[in-house]
Amino acid sequence: MAIKKGVFIVVLLVSVLLLVLCSFAFAEMRPPPPYERFSYSLPGESNWTNTLTLLDTTDSVIFEADGGIRHSRDSPMVGPAGQGEADEDFPCPGLPAYSLVAKIGERGKCILIGEHLAMVPDVDGFLYFAVNDKSPDDNAGKFSVQVSITRPVCGDGTCDIAEVGKCYEDCDWCGDGECNADETCGTCSQDCGYCEGDVAGIEDVVNRYYEALEQNDFETLTEITTGTLYDYHNEFKRFEREFQKEIKLIGIDVQNELLPSISIEDLEVEFDGLEEGGATAVARYHETEEEIMLKKKLDKWLIEDIKDNDSDELFTTGLDIGELRKNHNKYLKTFSEEKIKEASVIVSADTTKSPLKLVFFTIIAIVIFFSIIYFVAMAVKKRGSFPKIKMPKPHLKKKSRKVSKLKKTKKCKKCGAGMYENGKYCAECGKKN
After folding, report:
1. How many domains does the chain have?
2. I need a surface site. Which of 87, 144, 192, 358 has the fewest CB within 10 A?
3. Are residues 145 and 247 in the same domain?
4. Rounded distance, CA 29 to CA 31, Å?
5. Residue 114, CA distances (Å) to 89, 95, 249 in order
6. Residue 51 host element (H or E)
7. pLDDT tens digit sequence for 266-298
C-alpha cells in the first residue's frame, strides 16, 4: 500500500512538472499574425466604391472573385477577368474591359483583380473597387469579392517579407545601421563601412576618368561612368566615330573641333568618404575643384556625376542628350559639305556610299585585260604567228540607174509656154494639149 502511494506521488509530481514546462513553452509561443477576411458584393453598375478597408504596405492581401455582369442587354455574361482591352474612355485603359479592378487611395493606380490576385500594397490607403466600364449604368449582374488580409506584427520574431525595411526588431537588411553576420564591406558598405581596397579603387577610377577625358578616350570613359554621364560620353563616342568616317571619305586629316579639351598636369585626387549607396572624391587641377560622385555596381566603382564646387551645380543638370546628338549631326553635315566644296571633290553617290565597289570593278577590269594578253600570247606561241582574223566581206552597193532629165520639148498651143514631151496640161494656163 505504501509502495502504491509512493508511486502515485511520483506520478503526480512528474505530471505537475510537465504541466509547468508546457505552460512555459506555450507562453514563449507567439500568436500568429492577425488575419482578417472581408466579403464585398459589387453591382455591375458600380463606379469607384470605397470599401473603407485600410491597407498598409506591410499587409499581405489575397483577392478571390467570382460572379459576372452583362454590359448590355444582348451581351454574354462576363466574369471578373473581363474581355478584350479597354480604350482611353474606360476608367482603367489598357486593362481588360468590364473586368473587376481596384485601387489603393483615391488617386491610386489601377489594379486588375480578375478571379485571383495576391499582392503586397506599395502604398497605404483605403481600398476601392470598380467595374472597368465607361458607361456602367446599363450593366446587369454583380461581382462577389473575398479579401483576406494578413497583418504581420513587428517584434514577433518572424521577418515577414512586408517587414523588410520597416521592422528592425524582426529583420536585418542592408541599410538598417547594423553590420550583421551575413553582411560585409563588399556587400553592404552602408552598414559595414568601406573596404580597405575601396579607397584605392575610387581614386584610381577618378584618375583614369580625367586621363581619358584629356585624351578624348571615349572607350574608357564609357566603361567607368554610369547614368546620364555615361549617355553624354557615349554620344561623343558615336560623334567621333562618324567624324572619322567623314574625313576618311573626303580624304583629309583634320581634328574634331567639338571634342571637349582639358589639361590635368597638376591633377590631385582625394577620397572624401562614403555616402548612402555610393562614395565621393575630390579632384583638383589648376584652380578648379570638383566633387566626384560614384556608385558601386557589381564590385565596380563607376562615376555617376560631377559637381563644380564653385557654382555648386551638377554637370548632368539640364543636360539634353537628344539635343546634343542633333547638334552633332548638324555639324557633321555642314562640315562635310564645306570640305567637299573646298577640295572640289566630285564623288558620285554610289562611290560615296560604297568606295569598295570602285576598287572591286577596277580589279576585275585589270584581271580581264591581262587574261586577254595571256591568251593571245599562248595562241601566237602555238601557231608560230599571230592568228589570222577573217574579216567579213562588205556588201556591194547596187549601182544606181542613171535617170535622164526630162526636157521641155513642146509648147502650149494657147499661151506658148514650154511643156514636157509627155505632159497633157500646160503649167501656165492649164490648157489641155
Report:
1. 2
2. 87
3. no
4. 7
5. 20, 10, 61
6. strand 49-55
7. 888 888 887 666 888 999 888 888 999 988 886
